[in-house]
Each structure stands twice: as structure tokens, then as C-alpha cells.
Amino acid sequence: MTTIRIANAQFWVHDQDEALAFYTKQLGWEVRADVTMEAWNFRWLCVGPPGGEGPALVLMPVPGQPMLDGASSAQLSDLVAKGAGGTLFLETDDCQAAYDELSARGIEFNDPPTAQPYGIDTSFRDPSGNNIRLTQVLEFDPRRQ
């Protein structure tokens, strides 16, 4: 069977430059691609964890004309701001250390690292409102809460 891999995932963002600063300066990721296609008035902007391996996150601007009319674009923008655009799930070897490091870089968390049956978990949002969960996966233990 032919191998098929996830290459990229995508978040809608309100401002690509603001998102780029957040993901690179605060989260510590690298730019994987930043290509402007003038003829299409389009910017392909991808970021990912350092090292360049694995899927990247495409930071796609909320579309307007001709893809969406003004009202639909505004609705999508509002939904993204409310966190309805989806969730990015990240794993770490040490949730508390990652929380401390990212907090020092200015990321505001929704909650402190908290023990869950599946591990230690916390969450934050990017400047557009997209949900990001950060988890230290541990052996499942329903007694851990």
C-alpha cells in the first residue's frame, strides 16, 4: 500500500504577521515556508517545531472575496476568535517545565498543568483564538485527577 502522511494542518488566523510572531517568538517554532504569490494575492506561511521534521502548521488568513462574502468572512473570524476553529494537540516530556518556559516568553495559559487520567495537561490560545493543548502523556491511570 502507498504511504500517506500528514504534511500540514491549518489554522485560520486574523493577522499572519501577528501569528508568525506568536509561533516563532513565543512558542519557539521555526518558519518552514513563507512564500507570497503576488499574482494570487496569497501568502503561504507554515511554521513548526524546530528541526523541520513532521507536519507543519499553515497560518492561513481568514478569507474574504472571492472565497467568502463579507458576512461569511466576519462570521468565520468571530468563530475563530471564540476558539471554534479547532484544536492543536502538542506533546511534551515535561508539562510543568514547558509551562514555565512558555509563560516566561509571554504565553498566557488558560489553566496550570493539571493531572488527568492520561497525563498532565494545560492549554492556551494563539492571538486569533485558536485552541492549543499541551500534554505530557503518561500511562493511563483513572485514579489520577
UniProtKB/TrEMBL annotation:
Database matches in PROSITE patterns: VOC
Positions of the VOC domain: 5-137
Parts of the chain that traverse the membrane: none
Gene3D superfamilies reported in the protein's UniProt record: 2,3-Dihydroxybiphenyl 1,2-Dioxygenase, domain 1
Alphabetical list of SUPFAM superfamilies matching this protein: Glyoxalase/Bleomycin resistance protein/Dihydroxybiphenyl dioxygenase (SSF54593)
Protein name, UniProt field: Glyoxalase
Organism: Streptomyces mangrovisoli
